[in-house]
Amino acid sequence: MSVRIYQLSKELEMTNKEIIALLQERGLDVSNPSNTIPNIYAESFREEFKKKGETKPTTSLQKDKEIVEINTPDSAQTQTAPLPDSPKTRFVKTAEDIAEEKRQALESKTVVSSIISRPENTKTPASQKPPLPPTPTSNAAGAPKTPPKIPGIAGNAPKLPQTIPTAKEPLRSSPPPPIPSHTTNTAPSVTTNNLEEKIEKNTPPPPAQTNILRCKPPIIVREFAITLGLKPFRLISELMEMGIFASMNQVIEEQVALRIAKRHGFELEIQHRKETPQQTPQQTQQQQKEAAAKRAIEEEIKSDEKRVPRPPIVCVLGHVDHGKTTLLDTIRKTSVVSGEAGGITQHIGAYQVTHNNQKITFIDTPGHAAFSKMRQRGADVTDIAILVVAADDGFKPQTDEALKFAQKAAVPIIVAINKMDSPGANIDRVKQQLQERGIATEDWGGEILCTPVSALKGTNIDTLLELVLLQAEVEEFKANPDCPAEGVIIESQIEIGRGPTASVIVQKGTLKIGDNLLCGGTYCKVRAIMDDKGATIKEALPSTPVKILGWTDVPEAGMVFKTLKNEKEAKREAEEYAHKSKVKSLVPEKHEKMDLQNLLDAIANVKEKTLKVIVKADVHGSVEALSACLQDIKSDKIKLELLYGEVGLISKNDIKSANAAGAVIVGFNTKFETGSAAQAKHENVQVIQHNIIYELINQVKDLMTEMLEPELKENKLGAAEVRQIFAIAKGIVAGCMVTEGKISRDAFARVLRGKKLEPLHQGKIITLKRFKEDTSEVRAGYECGIQISAFNDYKEGDIIECFEIQKIRPSL
How far apart are alpha carbons 571 and 745 in whole angstroms? Predict the structure, then answer.
């Protein structure tokens, strides 16, 4: 028997991380709460826990923390605790100690004054230099000997301390260290000038300060002179030197004021009306950086303090027809598959379910190759990815693609092996394929959670949900519900009676009715919020999938929306974004230098056949998927040009645009507006519609093929030899004997003459007679009369060859 780590943590009332850390210290290779350990280890762990008096065992990190806390001295203890080996240490100074300190300070001042009072360039000869004072030693009684006096210095120099007091020695009042003598063997005498020179050399020059003066126009001579600290007549004389004659109340120009201020060492800043005091670029950038960093730190601190657990967002990925939607239907206890055309999911949907009183948000994604962007968008939004693999089918192209999306988004993966009860199911083969792709399951020595399920019968669905909640508990997903709402657009569409709507997932904050949202070039005054079941709600917390009504236009799927203060600000930012996008699209690309080859290529492009397409679909994700699939159709003979793609019904404006551009309208899962179908028929605009995307793509390919010129192939039918020539009212008729094959009326024929059978003429057989009666066909061995269009120069011995031209359908 074995015990899972999360079960043991619940039993001992400890966290999963503490249990895993303890087991890793004791040599067990575990890293996930769902890992198992032998029962004997679990029993010993329980006994050890009980023997310790029901106290939680500490990990090495906790032990290190305790050791650091013990070894770190408290400030109060450092100041008051007595040192070892000094039980009677006193920190109150006696009168003798104070007198001794005063005497030593007086001696130090005398030494410094003696040094400074020496002549500036006086040097003591080496022969007259007094010897260095001997090292002080202690006498027998233990008292230090008085150091010898230095000539020219009153009093004794203070002694050098023998050792530095350590923590084990008592703190005694000791005299300060002596000031070095000026009578050493190597150093010159210290003078005031030397000290000043050293200070000047070692001290960096002070930064140049710029005096800034600020004034407002008009600049009057009297006021400007006072600002500069000059007398008015002095400023007037300076102006006269510059050739400007002005009185005290006269206004001077700004450029003149700048020159005068600069002459007197000032930098003049002229502040015009409604203008704030200017700052240097360095000051402005520094202040902006500091303010931004301060705001970011404050917001991060506030956000972290208010973060609370939120439901996990789970994305269901996998190959088409592997049971993703059926699995989600079983979890949600609904039926979505029956509502999808062709039995495949062509839209992205988000739902929320409750299991063990905990909410889980699911995102269902299409499995068809056309919807790769939808799958990638779903993987980027989610916290956990469920990879659905059919047990009887194994890994398929979209399965590998979905796995790459999940790995790129760096989200935990849970593998659900579906159709476990179907004939031909091989669960071990699926696990082997997982192993080959570097994601081993737990029972194969890896860390990936995996369980076999049956979405159709509901087998092991509870186990799958428990694994999801377990993974969410390990990851600890949190969000701040008190900040302005932000989230991601999952899908967007235009609904009849509702206008533009968007299915979103709130990532942080609380979305409320009346909020002003901004998403790219569109904005929204939230009129209504609907949950995944269609019920109207007043607010949506983090990780909640909802539908929002009130958008000015259809927002782009996959973009992030945010909440602004008011509708005016949201409208302004949306217009700015739309304007920038439009300007960017109108910027011409760099053109290469035109030469003969480029000119020929341009002419060839003009002659090349092009199918122009307008895409209309029910939701933005379908427009995105269909446009990508159509642009992926590659051909050297014809190209496809996508004019635009929009969400909604096929309108009259679409018909007009298609008629003007000679384009075809491709509608996916959408219908005509009232009156637009009749207009399309009247203006002869071709419209292709279907509710299954790959059928629609095939129809577009067929239309492109029909636009190409067919390949012509000549097929010989027979031949006849001219034996006699007859003249009739309608022209000349050649009497012939059919030598091979057959001769057919209205077929192509050519006249061959001579030994080399050189062709003389080619046309159609307009008359074919058999004994003066018209016939449609004459076979070999029979005689007939043949007349070819626009030819009368028949001669005996000519060969008339009959053939047909077959048209072969070209390929893209």
Answer: 75
SS3 call for 665: strand
What is the overall mean pLDDT for the chain?
76
The answer to whether the Cα torsion of 709, 710, 716, 720 is positive or negative is: negative
Candidate from 18-22, 175-179, 426-430 with smallest mean pLDDT: 175-179
Other CB atoms within a 10 A radius of the CB of residue 751 amount to 23
Among 228, 229, 233, 231, residue whose Cα is nearest residue 260:
228
Nearest residue to 113 (alpha-carbon basis) of 182, 26, 198: 182
Tell me how far CA of residue 185 lies from CA of 125, 127, 131, 156, in angstroms: 10, 10, 9, 21
- Mapped onto helix, strand or coil, the DSSP state of residue 537 is strand
Place of tokens 């011995």: 797
Question: pLDDT tens, 531-564?
Answer: 888 889 999 999 999 999 999 999 988 888 999 9
Sheet architecture: strand order including 349-355: 349-355, 358-364, 313-318, 384-390, 413-418, 449-452
Share of the chain above pLDDT 70, in %: 70
Please give the pLDDT value at position 323. 83
What is the C-alpha to C-alpha distance for residues 97 and 99, in angstroms, rounded to an integer?
5
pLDDT of residue 275: 47
CA distance 695 to 690: 7
Cα–chain-centroid distance for residue 3? 41
- Max distance between CA atoms of the chain, in angstroms, equals 165
Helix residue spans in 663-784 (DSSP H): 676-682, 693-707
Distance CA 719, CA 739 (A): 6
pLDDT over 50 (residue 191): no
Query: Which ranges constitute the DSSP H helices of 307-396?
Result: 324-332, 372-381
590: number of Cβ within 10 Å: 4
Q: At 566, which amino acid appears?
A: N
**What three-state secondary structure class fits 472?**
helix
Question: Which residue, 644, 655, 658, 645, is CA-closest to 619?
Answer: 645
Measured CA to CA, the distance from residue 9 to residue 656 in angstroms comes to: 69
**pTM of the predicted model over 0.70:** no
10 Å CB burial of residue 422 (0-12, 13-18, 19+) is middle
CB 315 within 8 A of CB 363: yes
323-344 b/e (C-beta count within 10 Å ≥ 16 → b): bbbbbbbbbbeeebeeebeeeb
Residue at 22: amino acid letter: L
Taking residues 259-271, report their average pLDDT.
85
* pLDDT over 60 at 795, yes or no: yes
What per-residue confidence (pLDDT) applies to 538? 92
- Orientation angle between helical segments 16-25 and 60-71, nearest 10 degrees: 90
- 687-690, strands of its sheet edge to edge: 638-647, 609-617, 664-668, 687-690
- Among residues 465, 389, 401, which one has the least CA distance to residue 427? 389
Are the beta carbons of 787 and 731 closer than 8 angstroms? yes
- Please give the single-letter amino acid code of residue 34: S
- How far, CA to CA in Å, does 514 sit from each of 124, 467, 530, 549? 93, 38, 14, 11
- Quick check: 415 pLDDT over 50? yes
